[in-house]
Amino acid sequence: MEILLLLSVFVIATCGLIYELVAGTLASYLLGDSVTQFSTIIGAYLFSMGIGAYFSRFFKKDLLSWFIQLEILVGLIGGISSAALFLLFEHAASFRLVLYLLVGLTGTLVGLELPLLMNILKDRYEFKDLVSRVFTFDYIGALAASIVFPLLLVPYLGLIRTSCFFGILNVAVAIVVLVKFKREIKWARYLKSKAVACIIVLVGLFIWADKIMTFAESQAFRDPVIYSHSSSYQRIVLTHSRLDLRLYLNGNLQFSSADEYRYHEALIHPAMLYSPKRSQVLILGGGDGMAARELLKYPEVEQVTLVDLDPAMTKLFRQNSMLASLNDSSLLSPRVHVINADAFQWLKENEKHFDVVIVDFPDPGNYAVGKLYTTAFYRKLRHALTDSSVVVIQSTSPYVAPKAFWCVNATLQECNYQTIPYHTYVPSFGEWGYVMASPGPLAKHHDSLPAGLRYFATGTFSQMCDFTADMQQRKVLANHLNNQILVQYFEDEWGKYQE
Amino acid sequence: MAIIAGGTITVSQYVACMEKKDKYAHISSRISGASAKAGHMMRDQQFGTPDITEYTDAVIVGGGAAGLTAARHLHHSGFTNFRLLELEPHTGGNASSGSNQYSAYPLGAHYLPIPNTDNQPLLDLLAEAGILTGYDPNGLPIYNETDLCYDPEERLYIRNRWQEGLVPQLGISHQTQDEIRRFLELMEQLRKAKGSDNRYAFDIPVANSSNDALYRELDQLTMEEWLTQQHYHSEELRWYLDYCCRDDYGAGISTISAWAGIHYFASRKGKAANADSSQLLTWPQGNGRLVQHLQQFSRDKTQTGCVVYKITPETKQVLVDYYDINTHQIKRLVAKACIMATPQFITQRLIPGGQYDHAFVYSPWLVANITLDQIPESSGYQLCWDNVIYQGKSLGYVNAQQQRLTQQLPAKQVITYYLPLDHLDPVASRKYAIALSPQHWVKLIADDLEAVHPGITELMHDIDITVWGHGMIRPHKGFITGDVRAAAQKSPFANVFYAHSDLSGISIFEEAFYHGNKAAGALTDYCG
């Protein structure tokens, strides 16, 4: 009997520390800045344990039954905590509040455990023996937890399964105690069915954890994955590290929060300087709202029409407070009109003309996306332009994929656009290219830029238009629907980098 | 021991059979296609004297590509008082199309190769339909980019992998590579070759091809015999050519004449400003796109569900007697002249003194439009427009989604599966095809595709099966240059004109178009 109860001390201690570690890790994954997250989580958790310990004095009768109740509850809440946090990340307006509530609750319950257990054991041992044994097993458990957590659990089980697994252990303790002390326990049958139900929930969650967060996927990314979602169109993944937050679509990096301003300022502001009129702007792609953020810096911009295929993207970047802070809540602006539609289809039906068009599609890495870089597309786009409208197209890396980059330029020229190809350096991407184009002659019409830019300045542009020898214009074919040559260039050139 | 093993096999076969029964239960299916019943009515039923007589200037019997072309020609000639009678509930013939909530799809012909630049009437048709948008400074046609087949065009499943292109490349010997190169070089030469009459050795329409005996003699051999004579022995090359013949003629190299087999390659001299000569024009509804354009010229003059059962040419007029399936009436049209845009096995039954010559052989076909959740990925080259299986009994499938511009695919996709029924002689194949239930076809089709896409059966929802009893004229040995075809070109009556691709011996849109225009031209001349 004695060894059994002490073993449960060991298990309880391990579980308690694991929940704390899971919460700390999750917080630093999801919110970044691991030092702050870990220390505030540990602080909040320990404080909540203190609250739990305080409340233990109010339990006077039926201690064993209460203890079992408690184990089931800790197991359930601790067990589902990480799954719940991952799922809530997208939806909760204030994720921090949910996080600390959950940490507080778990901590309070865990804080109740040992005092309650010691009260149960106090008549069976001498006080000094009791204290010595309980704390010995408590600290051994803590050591075990702190060693297995980073070495085994996170890499092999992942966070969701780890907390599930320890939730199951907590409930298992409840069941063992239930069985061994049958005669001393009130409401034994009720407790038993409750425990079994919790075990089923947790085992189910353990098995289906993949559905919530593919463990294999987290392996593919450099940094911890904090969010992943398969929409009807693409796989959206957010990773978070100490330095930055990164968005990946189908495994391709879309931006790093550390340097996306370079990419987006270079995407938007040259076209804005070259366009005589700037009141009606169209963004094709760009569901992250970053391009819209740059455009909203111009008071002349009356309306930004943003056409992005994927409602999951625009919803995520509108609702999540952390992501909305990256795009200055541009997707909530009354000046921004978000339309979730296929760009080709939408252009076919559109009758409006735009002064500036930002084409920010994913790289032409497959034949479906490749269609959005064809002469057919640019001819269709012409119908949404006036003679003096300015278009800018993100055009992959002129350093890594010069043929692909110059192919975009050649394709636009074949459709009778005047073009200005240019490039810039974005640390997380490398050297990146854009093509500015217009049905009419391209000339600078404005000199002033909005305040608060961190990278782009009027003087910068002439340098951006200069292509060094390793990025010089190549002789390439234009991209047509019936040759899809761009996808072939892109695959050949980027393929070398992936081997 | 043998008995035990035998017993085991029987039991496992039984189990497999039981499993399979369930395996297809979720796939709905139906057979449509040329109304054999209505067609046979013409052959078998006796009709009385007409209840109603109507008068018109001209009657076109048959609303396939040739009949619709003839109607367009009449329309453009200012000849507006005519009628078009069609047996089926819709016009279009082999180029008919269907659709469901996910996609349009062809019931037969799927594409038109870039036309030869000297085929001006066809280029004009494409310009009229908005498919050809203009000519570049060199006079080369510019095609509407969205009507050209999008890249990637073709792939072949060979040695358990998909490869790019249909000419076998994966794992073939040097000897075979040399043979393939030699063959393709020869075809390139023959593409340019002209006969002593200064006409192209192989041309489209067939009627424009050279009469030089040097080339016409090729019709006296089967493609297979010619390959042997020319020392082409490679299995892969022979398979490829067999595939090409089955694709265009519904029968393989052992049946098709060498002239026709070579015509497949050497007749295509198409050029375009914005496409290679090997490229083609295609649409989700296949050649339905072309007949939809043609239909506008005869829409108000077309009567469907009409079983024409007798043609009586008289000196000043032609009597066309038909049974109207919709109203159950027997009717007579009295016209100055008539175009028989029907295949010869029908034309010769309707014409007085006509005798259907069995040299006109028709290949039966099955075309199945399969609606499925998605096309499963498999190893090798990615999904293309045309997806062919090496040594498969079918020709593989065409993926209509290829011609979509949008990023998002519909919830379900439609692929078109082509199966020439050439495993038996045409008559036996036709009987077999008509006797088979939709469930049998489903099993046959699903099992065939399982070999390249394991698990595809589960993803299927519906199969729309079209059986073409007389799908294509078959240019078997001696047919193209033979007397029977020559004799069939012209009707024995001054006021009856023939128009059907089977008169060319090759069942392609270009030939139907040629005969439709030719017959309508002759008719307008006749009527003055």
From TrEMBL, chain A:
It is found in: Cell membrane. Coiled coil: none annotated. GO terms for molecular function: spermidine synthase activity; thermospermine synthase activity. The active site is at residue 360. It is a multi-pass membrane protein. The keyword Signal does not apply. S-methyl-5'-thioadenosine binds at residues 234, 308, 342-343. Pfam families: Spermine_synth. GO terms for cellular component: plasma membrane. CDD domains: AdoMet_MTases (cd02440). Pathway: Amine and polyamine biosynthesis; spermidine biosynthesis; spermidine from putrescine: step 1/1. It catalyses: S-adenosyl 3-(methylsulfanyl)propylamine + putrescine = S-methyl-5'-thioadenosine + spermidine + H(+). Belongs to the spermidine/spermine synthase family. Homodimer or homotetramer. This is Polyamine aminopropyltransferase. It comes from Chitinophaga jiangningensis. The gene is speE.
From TrEMBL, chain B:
It comes from the Bacteria. Gene3D superfamilies: FAD/NAD(P)-binding domain. SUPFAM superfamilies: FAD/NAD(P)-binding domain (SSF51905). Residues 66-344 form the Amine oxidase domain. Pfam families: Amino_oxidase. One of its GO terms (molecular function) is oxidoreductase activity. InterPro entries: Amino_oxidase, FAD/NAD-bd_sf, Zeta_carotene_desat/Oxidored. This is Flavin containing amine oxidoreductase. It comes from Chitinophaga jiangningensis. The lineage of its organism: Bacteria, Pseudomonadati, Bacteroidota, Chitinophagia, Chitinophagales.
